[in-house]
């Protein structure tokens, strides 16, 4: 039995080696033969006979420069998805650490997300285009968060941080809604918080008051405000010493023009998350009532005028 198993493993290794060699020498095959090999490779990847790592052979310079790599990959992915599904393909790519290398199927001067997206979408593989965009966005956000954390730890002037973030948003086509959560996380990670509940609220308010102008710049949209509110809610729930500080933080942000009345009311009525919901809604009750009364008074004054 052990001998049979050993032979099976050996045959599998030989099979993988054979495919690696075939992919390396794709130029020697006709276009029809390349198509057949791509389809076979996709099927074998789909049923688990071949590992996704064989795709690294496609990153060979000669195959990339002549467009063979991208053309072959499209046919292979189509067959793979027909055998399994898009989730199976993307999951395998991630496990093989190939999710961030897909752009390498193209020459350096064409290694852009836009070019990849158009090429693969035109070929009927929009799922992979969307997947790459998400992966690139995640990578960009991680780098942005890392750099932001560094700048905040060095206490860079807020104007410089604002300029840097705006440049990164423009360069990477990042929406404000993707940035506001990162800013909150970085700001809260920039401090070593007091372990005493009665002292941490005061410390938090002092710290957040300093960075309120930064948050205000990137919470100009209603959706961004709601995301920030949800982030604050989750943070206060996950960090027990902050449980009683939630309302004070929200009021601070309201006074500092980070959060609008509309956003706070919407969060209260329908946009809050589940974490600590009852505790935080109870904390906010009086302030929300005050906001609603102020709104009604403002409306009645407007009618009188």
Automatic annotation (TrEMBL):
InterPro entries in alphabetical order: ARM-type_fold, eIF5-mimic_regulator, HEAT_5MP1_2, W2_5MP1/2, W2_domain
Keyword vocabulary terms for this entry:
Cytoplasm, Translation regulation
Gene3D superfamilies assigned = 1.25.40.180
All residue ranges annotated as the W2 domain in the record:
134-301
Q: Where is the signal peptide?
A: none
Among CDD domains, the record links this protein to: W2_eIF5C_like
GO biological process terms held by the UniProt record: regulation of translational initiation
Q: Where in the cell is it found?
A: Cytoplasm
Q: Which GO terms describe its cellular component?
A: cytoplasm
Its annotated function is as follows: Translation initiation regulator which represses non-AUG initiated translation and repeat-associated non-AUG (RAN) initiated translation by acting as a competitive inhibitor of eukaryotic translation initiation factor 5 (EIF5) function. Increases the accuracy of translation initiation by impeding EIF5-dependent translation from non-AUG codons by competing with it for interaction with EIF2S2 within the 43S pre-initiation complex (PIC) in an EIF3C-binding dependent manner.
Sequence similarity = Belongs to the BZW family.
- Indicate what this protein is called per its UniProt record: eIF5-mimic protein 1
The opening ranks of the lineage are: Eukaryota, Metazoa, Chordata, Craniata, Vertebrata
């Amino acid at each position: 039995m052990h001998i049979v198993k050993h032979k099976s493993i050996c045959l599998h290794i030989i099979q993988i080696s054979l495919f690696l060699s075939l992919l390396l020498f794709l130029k020697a095959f006709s276009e029809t033969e390349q198509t057949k090999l791509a389809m076979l490779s996709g099927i074998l990847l789909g049923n688990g006979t071949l590992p996704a790592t064989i795709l690294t052979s496609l990153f060979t310079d000669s195959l990339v420069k002549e467009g063979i790599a991208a053309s072959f990959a499209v046919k292979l992915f189509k067959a793979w998805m027909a055998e399994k599904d898009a989730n199976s393909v993307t999951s395998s790519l991630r496990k093989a650490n190939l999710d961030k290398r897909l752009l390498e199927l193209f020459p350096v001067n064409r290694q852009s997300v836009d070019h990849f997206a158009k090429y693969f979408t035109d070929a009927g593989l929009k799922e992979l285009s969307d997947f790459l965009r998400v992966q690139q966005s995640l990578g960009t956000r991680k780098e942005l968060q890392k750099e932001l954390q560094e700048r905040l730890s060095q206490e860079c002037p807020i104007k410089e941080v604002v300029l840097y973030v705006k440049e990164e948003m423009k360069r990477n086509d990042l929406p404000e809604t993707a940035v506001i959560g990162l800013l909150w996380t970085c700001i809260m990670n920039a401090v070593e918080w007091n372990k005493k509940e009665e002292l941490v609220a005061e410390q938090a308010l002092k710290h957040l008051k300093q960075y309120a102008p930064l948050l205000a710049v990137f919470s100009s949209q209603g959706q961004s405000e709601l995301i920030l509110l949800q982030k604050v809610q989750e943070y206060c729930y996950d960090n027990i010493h902050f449980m009683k500080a939630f309302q004070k933080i929200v009021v601070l942000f309201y006074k500092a023009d980070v959060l609008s009345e509309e956003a706070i009311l919407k969060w209260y009525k329908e946009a809050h998350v589940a974490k600590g919901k009852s505790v935080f809604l109870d904390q906010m009750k009086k302030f929300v009532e005050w906001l609603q009364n102020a709104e009604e008074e403002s409306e009645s004054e407007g009618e009188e005028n």
